[in-house]
Amino acid sequence: MEGKHEKYQRLIARAKSTEPIRCAVAHPCDESSLRGALEAAQQKLLVPVLVGPEARIRKVATEHDLDLTGCTIVDAAHSEAAAETAVRLVREAKVDALMKGSLHTDELMAAVVKRETGLRTGRRISHCFVMDVPALKQALIVSDAAVNIFPTLQDKVHIIQNAIDMAHALGLAMPKVAILSAMETVNPDVPTTIEAGALCKMADRGQITGGILDGPLALDNAIDLTAAKIKKINSPVAGQADILIVPDLEAGNMLAKSLTFMAGADAAGIVLGARVPIILTSRADSVTARLASCAVAALIVQANREQQLKKDSA
Hints:
- With 314 residues, the protein is of the alpha/beta class.
- It has a domain at 122-273: Isopropylmalate Dehydrogenase, CATH 3.40.718.10.
- It has eleven helices and eleven strands.
- The chain has helices spanning 6-16, 31-42, 54-63, 79-91, 105-112, 153-169, 191-204, 219-223, 225-230, 249-263, 287-313, and strands spanning 21-26, 46-52, 72-75, 97-100, 126-132, 140-143, 176-180, 212-217, 243-245, 266-272, 278-280.
- An eleven-stranded mixed beta sheet has the order 3-2-1-4-11-10-5-6-9-7-8, sandwiched between helices.
- Strand 2 (46-52), helix 3 and strand 3 form a beta-alpha-beta unit.
């Protein structure tokens, strides 16, 4: 477990060198979600805008000795109203990001994906875990373990592009992307291996940009160089992947939880593909994992700002 959190500390340090982002926190009505937002504010990662029943938020703060000084509170009667109000603040350009409070993820995402009033873009919305695995030198991005249940080939194009763009924001100029299956050869009887081959060819033709793709790859030869050498896999990705693209939500969820509970990893969760990054935290998250989620969102916002400046000056 030596080196645990080292990758997250680097991310947090990098994010703290940028301007804090304004973040709407939807329904922070328990100690865990409220404390997480306030700790991120103390670290100068974000400026929280607390959206929810004001009396209840203040009661939680009083009960747990939390200081709300400097926080803006936007009153919303209940969790559904808090989600809708937080999304409206994004549409009005009053905040740069969203954070899930103590409401259900489905409640927040229902407001995000509404066609007329939500935060959809031309991209498929997807989820990434940025995982700090003690045994690995680099942070590991796993997608998609929380949003897309059985993604189509076209969905996976968006999932991969979202993950690559996030990796760029985190400082990886050309991230290595492993498209996972149960084996490293294309097998007509295993559809995910055929999809992996197609996705790699799409990257060759410029339909996915900014990363180096390879697949299908089994998990062992995606992250372990020795395993890749034993199987004689000649690949710039095998054994050194930055991003793991899983076949479906069940596989991704099992992979992320296996890394968490059996390899001592922490998982920072971010939803991508909407107008702004959406920070998904869990009550089980460590303080460092919560801060890392906020740091990732801050770095994405900063990268988007820089891209917009380049477009405006072009």
